[in-house]
């Protein structure tokens, strides 16, 4: 296997008594889009700040391109592009000035790419940053990140302020750099976004990695919520494999089903004459509520 | 149009329940405090005559206003008080009103609060009228309380009716500025431009008054609110007509503000915001370039401000002998030696010019706590480079600011003294504080490196230096209190005849930059090895 682009071994970060990260192990390979998901406050941003050499690890090691993230931060950052989760920008600089500054700080320069992205993300670079909304500030950071020619893109919840149209532009950008053979480390709390883009995923909760694998390997985590209305009452639903949380609703039932069992459940339902059927993917919160709360409790 | 404006007005007082009392405390302590202190400071007509001689020149009249004398040509305490205090206290009131109105109109609008308010059953002019109502109440309360307070402390010729007129003048000037600011808040598209226009207006009417008073052009001076309040001749003739002119003007300006407010869309100004730069200038490509971009405006302001300040302080050098004889406390303080007075002024200006040194350095910490530094450090920039830019500008300031002081004092001495100081004398007297500033700078870097959340201790230490020297001189405090700050170790120049610099002071002058450099190195190491600390 080639050298990992990003690797952490038993990474631990304490704030006094408080354990923010505990034995975090991650490994991002070249050309890989790596999802890093977890609920708010799980330690995603802390991990990323350690990876960027902004916070110092208490124990364990972290390396990017095989170099120590703390000691060689400057060298590493020449080939890293980063978008923070909470984008605070200098209120008295314009968006255009900020983008230029960010690109130049990495010594990269790509005017045409910058112009193209400004247009794609639809921002006015002549406005002062204080007048931008959260989404627009995020777009400024995204334009700066994607107009630089990096080997590793570290993105911390980059779509939390974007509308669906812009999310799509963002996903195109990620796929573009992936096709160019670059690696992406994408933190998120939106499961579908990670499902759509990532090759591999780690799930973090309360500072610990609780699950790592390819999307296929994690399929057992992804349940589908089903709301069904049938001609005759559904019999023996509880006995079907992979069914959880059955509740009666006005005219039918609502339940969750493990995605891998969905075929057999559908076959079961058709016997009772389906009138109406709605399937929705679960949110991360639902996933945590159902799966991990159970394990814990 | 005005629905629910009283509810909004109450909200303003609720939100400013701390801010307004603080403003009152500051303004009242200056106005009433000086009113109480003045009779003790200048208790003899002879002492006041000396001051009068000093004030009777165009520069002083331009700064303070025209001099009015009591019947019989005496420079009474009241006349002296109103000359010193009327215009400058009015400037304080203007500041308060500009901040008040911008905060509750344009700033709330930019923050999106007005949008919420307007979605409720409130009138279109409700917020502006609530703000102006609040301004009326605040200014009326200030007028009454300042008048009463001043009336209670005044000496015999500072009459109660004069004090009430003084208070009324403060309130009336405040209202004019509230109304004018309200107009600018409608014209400009964001709070910064609105404040800038308002302060520009303040500066313009001050200059107008200065020009009018200097040339004895009554009409010109009376175009300015500051000129008008001088015409109240408080404590002398107690004229009330300028108060009514000011109140009338504020009604007219308020009406104009309402008209403009009703005519515009929310979030818009009558002048559209100027678009900013599409691309960054070439220098904005490194942490150092960013530091310059961040410090540029305040750097320029300080470079202009320092020599002007030291020149205006230095202008008393012309009549320095009479000045220190004019009051007992000055004689006691200086031992009757004018050189000590000049040395003291230079100390004060030096401590004042340490403020930009600390400001430029602590800006680095502000960038960190607000999360801006994260962007820089996440790119190919080292910890050192992030701090270095701010440090170099602060270091430059620690040499440049004393030099600008020197320039100001020297220019003043050339202008007002019969035998002006040699340039080298003033140069030495001012530059001798540079090592102490470097020490302060080193300490600030050390704080940033190891106690990032306590960086403001540097300002507290500077404040201590100021008070230990200032009060130490006035109140005969033990000498070691002043020695606790680096400024207490600096020899006060120019030396009186026959005196010499102590060896200890020379050692201190060498040691301070060395210690400063050591603390700087330590601070940089600490900064490199610690976590970034976000919002305090």
List keywords for this structure.
heterodimer; A: about 300 residues; alpha/beta; Rossmann fold; Alpha-Beta Plaits; four-stranded antiparallel beta sheet; globular; B: about 525 residues; mainly alpha; 2 domains
Helices and strands, with pairings:
The complex is a heterodimer of chains A (297) and B (536).
Chain A: E1 6-15, E2 18-28, E3 33-37, H1 44-51, E4 59-64, E5 67-68, H2 73-77, E6 80-83, H3 95-105, H4 111-120, H5 134-146, E7 152-156, H6 164-179, E8 183-188, H7 191-197, E9 200-205, E10 208-214, E11 223-230, E12 243-248, E13 253-258, H8 262-270, E14 274-280, H9 284-296
Parallel strand pairs in A: 3-8, 3-9, 6-7, 7-8
Antiparallel strand pairs in A: 1-2, 1-4, 4-5, 9-10, 11-13, 11-14, 12-13
Helix pairs in contact in A: 3-5, 4-5
Chain B: H1 5-15, H2 19-41, H3 45-55, H4 58-64, H5 77-110, H6 113-119, H7 126-153, H8 160-187, H9 191-215, H10 218-222, H11 225-230, H12 241-263, H13 287-314, H14 320-325, H15 328-334, H16 338-352, H17 354-369, H18 372-377, H19 383-416, H20 423-431, H21 434-450, H22 457-475, H23 479-483, H24 503-528
Helix pairs in contact in B: 1-7, 2-5, 2-7, 4-9, 5-7, 5-8, 5-9, 7-8, 8-9, 8-12, 13-16, 13-17, 13-19, 17-19, 17-21, 19-20, 19-21, 21-24
The largest pleated sheet of chain B is described as: none
How many separate domains make up the residues of chain A?
2
H/E order of the elements of chain A? EEEHEEHEHHHEHEHEEEEEHEH
- Extract low-pLDDT stretches of chain B: none
**Helicity level of chain B:** over 70%
Number of helices of chain B: 24
The helix content of chain A, as a percent range, equals 25-40%
The gist of it:
The complex is a heterodimer of chains A (297) and B (536). Chain A has 297 residues and is an alpha/beta fold.
Task: Provide an overview of this structure.
- The complex is a heterodimer of chains A (297) and B (536).
- Chain A is of the alpha/beta class and 297 residues long.
- Chain A has two domains: 6-218, Rossmann fold; 223-281, 2-Layer Sandwich (Alpha-Beta Plaits).
- Chain A is built from nine helices and 14 strands.
- In chain A, 43% of the residues are buried.
- Chain B has 536 residues and is mainly alpha-helical.
- Chain B folds into two domains: 5-263, no CATH class; 287-528, no CATH class.
- Chain B has helices at residues 5-15, 19-41, 45-55, 58-64, 77-110, 113-119, 126-153, 160-187, 191-215, 218-222, 225-230, 241-263, 287-314, 320-325, 328-334, 338-352, 354-369, 372-377, 383-416, 423-431, 434-450, 457-475, 479-483, 503-528.
- In chain B, helix 17 (354-369) packs parallel to helix 21 (434-450).
- Chain B is globular.
- The chains are: A alpha/beta (297), B mainly alpha (536).
- The A-B interface holds A 49, 52-56, 73-75, 77-78, 80, 82, 84, 86, 88-90, 93-94, 96-102, 104-107, 124-128, 130-131, 141, 154 and B 110, 190, 273, 275-281, 284-287, 289-290, 293-294, 370-372, 374-383, 529-532.
């Amino acid at each position: 296997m080639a050298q990992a682009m990003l690797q952490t071994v038993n990474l631990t970060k304490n704030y006094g008594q408080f354990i923010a990260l505990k034995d975090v192990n991650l490994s991002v390979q070249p050309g890989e889009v790596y999802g890093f998901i977890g609920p708010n406050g799980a330690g995603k941003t802390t991990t990323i700040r350690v990876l960027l050499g902004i916070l110092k690890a208490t124990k364990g090691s972290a390396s990017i391109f095989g170099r120590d993230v703390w000691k060689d931060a400057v060298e590493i950052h020449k080939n890293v592009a980063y978008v923070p989760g909470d984008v605070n920008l200098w209120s008295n600089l314009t968006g255009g000035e900020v983008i230029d500054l960010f690109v130049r700080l990495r010594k990269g320069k790509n005017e045409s790419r910058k112009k193209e992205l400004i247009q794609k993300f639809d921002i006015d670079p002549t406005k002062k940053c204080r007048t931008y909304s959260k989404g627009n500030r995020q777009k400024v950071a995204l334009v700066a990140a994607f107009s630089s020619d990096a080997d590793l893109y570290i993105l911390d919840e980059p779509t939390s302020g974007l509308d669906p149209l812009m999310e799509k532009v963002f996903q195109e950008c990620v796929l573009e750099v992936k096709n160019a053979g670059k690696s992406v480390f994408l933190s998120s709390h939106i499961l579908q976004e990670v499902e759509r883009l990532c090759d591999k995923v780690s799930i973090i909760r309360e500072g610990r990695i609780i699950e790592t694998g390819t999307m296929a390997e994690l399929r057992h985590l992804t349940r589908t919520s089903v709301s069904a209305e049938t001609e005759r009452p559904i019999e023996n639903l509880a006995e079907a494999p992979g069914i959880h949380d059955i509740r009666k609703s006005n005219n039918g039932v609502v339940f969750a089903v493990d995605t891998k069992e969905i075929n057999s459940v559908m076959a079961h339902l058709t016997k009772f004459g389906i009138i109406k059927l709605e399937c929705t993917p679960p949110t991360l919160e639902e996933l945590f509520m159902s799966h991990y709360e159970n394990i814990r409790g | 149009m005005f629905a629910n404006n009283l509810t909004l007005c109450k909200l303003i007082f609720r939100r400013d329940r701390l801010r307004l009392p603080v403003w009152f405390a500051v303004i009242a302590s200056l106005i009433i405090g000086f009113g109480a202190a003045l009779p003790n400071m200048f208790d003899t007509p002879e002492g006041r005559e000396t001051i009068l001689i000093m004030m009777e020149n165009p520069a002083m009249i331009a700064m303070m206003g025209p001099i009015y004398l009591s019947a019989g040509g005496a420079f009474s305490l009241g006349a002296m008080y109103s000359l010193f205090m009327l215009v400058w206290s009015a400037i304080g009131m203007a500041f308060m009103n500009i901040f008040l109105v911008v905060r509750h109109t344009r700033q709330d609008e930019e923050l999106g609060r007005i949008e919420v308010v307007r979605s409720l059953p409130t009138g279109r002019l409700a917020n502006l009228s609530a703000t102006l109502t609040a301004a009326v109440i605040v200014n009326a309360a200030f007028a009454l309380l300042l008048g009463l307070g001043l009336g209670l402390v005044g000496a015999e010729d500072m009459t109660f009716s004069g004090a009430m007129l003084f208070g009324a003048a403060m309130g009336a000037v405040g209202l004019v500025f509230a109304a004018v600011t309200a107009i600018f808040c409608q014209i400009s598209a964001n709070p910064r431009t609105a404040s800038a226009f308002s302060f520009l207006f303040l500066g313009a009417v001050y200059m107008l008054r200065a020009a009018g008073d200097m040339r004895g052009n009554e009409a010109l001076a009376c175009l300015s609110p500051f000129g008008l309040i001088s015409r109240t001749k408080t404590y002398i003739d107690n004229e009330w007509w300028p108060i009514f002119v000011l109140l009338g003007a504020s009604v007219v300006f308020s009406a104009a503000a309402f008209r403009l407010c009703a005519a515009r869309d929310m979030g818009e100004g009558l002048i559209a915001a100027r678009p900013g730069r599409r691309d960054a200038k070439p220098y904005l490509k490194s942490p150092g370039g960013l530091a310059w971009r961040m410090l540029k405006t305040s750097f320029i302001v300080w470079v202009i401000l320092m020599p002007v300040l030291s020149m205006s302080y230095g202008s008393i050098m012309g009549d320095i002998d009479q000045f220190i004889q004019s009051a007992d406390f000055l004689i006691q303080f200086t031992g009757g030696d004018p050189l000590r007075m000049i040395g003291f002024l230079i100390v004060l200006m030096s401590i004042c010019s340490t403020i930009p040194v600390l400001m430029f350095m602590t800006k680095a910490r502000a960038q960190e706590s607000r999360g801006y530094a994260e962007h820089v450090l996440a790119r190919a920039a080292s910890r050192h480079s992030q701090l270095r830019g701010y440090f170099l500008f602060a270091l430059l300031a620690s040499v440049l600011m004393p030099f600008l002081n020197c320039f100001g004092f020297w220019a003043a001495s050339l202008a007002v003294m019969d035998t002006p100081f040699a340039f080298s004398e003033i140069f030495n007297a001012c530059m001798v504080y540079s090592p102490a500033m470097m020490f302060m700078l080193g300490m600030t870097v050390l704080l940033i490196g190891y106690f990032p959340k306590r960086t403001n201790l540097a300002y507290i230490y500077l404040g201590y230096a100021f008070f230990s020297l200032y009060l130490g001189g006035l109140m005969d405090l033990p000498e070691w209190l002043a020695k606790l700050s680096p400024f207490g170790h600096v020899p006060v120049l120019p030396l009186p005849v026959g005196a010499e610099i102590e060896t200890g002071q020379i050692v201190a002058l060498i040691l301070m930059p060395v210690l400063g450099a050591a603390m700087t190195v330590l601070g940089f190491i600490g900064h490199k090895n610690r976590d970034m600390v976000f919002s305090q």
